[in-house]
Amino acid sequence: MANTYSQIYIQFVFAVQGRKSFIHPDKREHLQQYITGILKNNGQKLIAIYANPDHIHILISYDNLNVKIPDLIRDVKASSSKMINDEKWFPGKFHWQVGYGAFSYSRSQIDKVAKYILNQEEHHSKTSFRTEYIKFLKKFEIAYHEKYLFEFYDA
Question: Quick one: which of 150, 22, 40 has its CA closest to 93?
Answer without folding.
Answer: 22
